[in-house]
Each structure stands twice: as structure tokens, then as C-alpha cells.
Amino acid sequence: MISVVEVISVHKILIDKYGRMPGIRDKNLLESAVLRSQQTFGEYLSQKAL
Question: Is 12 in a helix, a strand, or coil?
Fold first, then answer.
């Protein structure tokens, strides 16, 4: 699975390559989106996380 740090790194690479305004508007929202795919219930991924 991808981590928040990895997402930020990819974001920086894309900004450097294609331009645009650097920065993250809402880090908490980014963390929520990334970590949502990692939510589990027991051994199974939560259906809500999919």
C-alpha cells in the first residue's frame, strides 16, 4: 500500500515535471483518503473502504 509520504513525493515529482502551484491544500484530507484504503476489520478490508 502507498503511504502519505509516498503520495506527497509523487505529487512533488509531478509538480516539478508539469508545473502548477506547489503545496497541499488540506493535509488532513489527503491523509484520510490515503489511509481509508488501509482500514480493516479483522483480517478483511472493510467494504466501506473499497
Answer: helix
Instruction: Enter the pTM of the model.
Output: 0.67
Residue range 20-48: mean pLDDT, rounded:
78
Sign of the dihedral through C-alpha 33, 35, 41, 47? positive
Residue 3: CB partners within 8 Å, gap ≥ 6? Answer: 34
- For the chain, the average pLDDT equals 82
CA distances from 37 to 11, 26, 32, 49, 50 (A): 18, 18, 9, 5, 7
Q: Is the pLDDT of residue 3 over 60?
A: yes
Closest CA to 29 of 50, 8, 43: 8
